[in-house]
Amino acid sequence: MSNMFFDAWDGLLRAFLVTFLGYALLVLVIRISGKRTLSKMNAFDFIVTIALGSCLASICLSKDVALAEGAVVFSTLIGLQFLITWLSVRFNRVKVIVGGQPVLLLYKGELLSQVIRKERITIQEINVACRASSIANINDVEAIVLETTGDITVISKFTSKQDSPATLKDVLRFPA
Predict the structure, then answer these.
(1) Membrane-crossing residues (predicted)?
(2) Domain ranges in the chain?
(3) Reported CATH class of domain 101-168
């Protein structure tokens, strides 16, 4: 029966070496894959990040998982993320399926209450976003958008040069 605090020095050495090498390999694979891998996360990016962390933990802690197997998993996950983002850039349908679509929460002074409830956003969160954008009065807001990353973007009436800002054309519920 093994001791839960210490088995042998070779186990500690293996854990150290595999963790060091696994971490270095993960950093290398992420750096090779490009800046997009480290950008603000949508749901797909979040899933890949969790999977990479789980894989690294398995490599580090399980003697049944070889470092080479972990390298294949790292490369496969990063490769899939690269493929999906490549397709997303080229095909809008893929982008919407994988990353979602920004949603309009307020437009021209009208809060879209049903959308706010559906997206589980509070008025306090909208107020925080306004304050972060140096807007003291919601009447000074042209539009508020819930981005695919979960960020709330506030567009001031003073920065909007047209009746319909061009940056809102891909936003769900935007009256085109």
Answers:
(1) 12-30, 42-59, 65-87
(2) 9-97, 101-168
(3) alpha beta
